[in-house]
Amino acid sequence: MGRGGENYGKRENAGAASFKQETFPAWARDVKQCEEKYQVNRELGLSSAEVEKRRQIYGLNELLKHKPTSIFQLLLEQFNDTLVRILLAAAIISFVLAWYDGEGGGEKEITAFVEPLVIFLILIVNAFVGIWQESSAEKALEALKEIQSEHADVIRDGKKVSSLPAKELVPGDIVELRVGDKVPADMRVLNMISSTVRVEQGSLTGESEAVSKTVKVVPENSDIQGKKCMVFAGTTMVNGNCICLVTEIGMNTEIGKVHSQIHEASQSDTDTPLKKKLNEFGEVLTMIIGMICILVWLINVKYFLSWEYVDGWPTNFKFSFEKCTYYFEIAVALAVAAIPEGLPAVITTCLALGTRKMAQKNALVRKLPSVETLGCTTVICSDLNFIAF
Fold first, then answer.
1. Considering the entire predicted model, what is its pTM?
2. CA 44 – CA 155 distance, rounded (Å)
């Protein structure tokens, strides 16, 4: 009932997402051609031996589980910003100098730590908001897996197998669908037991009403909505009863493609216009602050370094480490004063408020700077399910 060595679909390695490869257009082929392609008889189904062979080729019928981003990695990403790194460096230097000056004790020791501690607090709050936002978005992306079916009624070895775990389906399986069933894989309708079959596929296509299905072929270049003889993983049967042939499973299904596209987009490191501007501002600010620090320190060199000229040559150098440190502190203090400590916090707060407003309208934002980008957007190209491209 099938030759295990033949390639029935697109995937050669278990668990590999290869939906970009050539697909067998089951929607544009009649029932007999589909059965011949997948080498199966709708009355008998696949044999157990053939199922195992195909499972070695296609793997399990489930979406790939992407390794979640660790908290430590998310924390590091929050400091991948020029301005934030400047603030961090300023806070560390201020803290070290405050510790050095405060060795004598007294009131100065307490007040000297106020500025670095405030900067550290701002950075911590900024990082916390960023981590919370990205963690919430990643959890929302995982919600796609919840719309998958858990069980299916399958015909194998000439017998009906009820409540088979959906992840065990392979291309070529014969599945019976009833009212209320979640479609476990992308399938070609072979036979309509009832007079009509209607499927709610709004979770995939965004269509507000249930769609009628048929066994008739459609043009090969039809879009998802036009494939009336196909039912797709993650959709729900709302009327009728039919027999279907599994054509695609796992990441090769239409919902698997959506999952892959969302994951790829979430991993994109492309900087937004706002982040680019902030990085440019940080680089210019670093250069200006560095020049000011060096200039202030050089102007005061005469106060901690002196020498005498003998026969036109400088000799008897005298160096005061205490005064050198003092004027270095002055230079650092000027640098810290020039840094807009509140800017990252203000930007993060504004973006977080924008994210909250978008969440109220069911818009998912993974990275905070994207809010500003969306605010400048005039045209959004998306499908009926509002998945932007």
1. 0.63
2. 7
